[in-house]
Amino acid sequence: MMTRPGNVTLVKGELAIPGHVVLQFTGCRDKMDQEIYEEDILLIGEKKYKVFWDIHAVTWMISHKGHVNRLTQEFTSTALRAFNTYERPDEAE
After folding, report:
1. Residue 58 falls within a domain, yes or no?
2. Residue 55 is part of which domain span?
3. Which of 64, 60, 75, 1 is CA-nearest to residue 26?
4. In a domain, 78, yes or no
5. pLDDT in tens, 38-84
6. What is the CA radius of gyration of the chain?
7. Which of 21, 58, 56, 15 is CA-nearest to residue 40?
8. Count of domains forming the chain
9. pTM of the entire structure?
10. Is the CA virtual torsion 61, 37, 27, 79 positive or negative?
11. Residue 60 lies in a domain
12. E strands in 1-93
């Protein structure tokens, strides 16, 4: 989405656009070459993995049923981006 610069604000160090959610790109792509963003749900078979930023580890992570691992391009090359939790909140984990 494009917006006028005056519509974008900085709130606690993060960009904010009223009425919108601004998602951060992880720098990774799935096996179909789709970009992966924070709060995305990735699938490997029937397993769902949620992508999030770990402020303490200062890196992108994935979680699945309480297990947390670092997000890597090796992992995402075998995963499929299913949806984002903002698109379908009832289906996330």
Report:
1. yes
2. 24-91
3. 60
4. yes
5. 999 999 999 999 999 999 999 999 999 999 999 999 999 999 999 99
6. 14
7. 21
8. 1
9. 0.80
10. positive
11. yes
12. 9-11, 14-16, 25-29, 35-37, 40-44, 47-54, 59-64, 67-70, 80-84
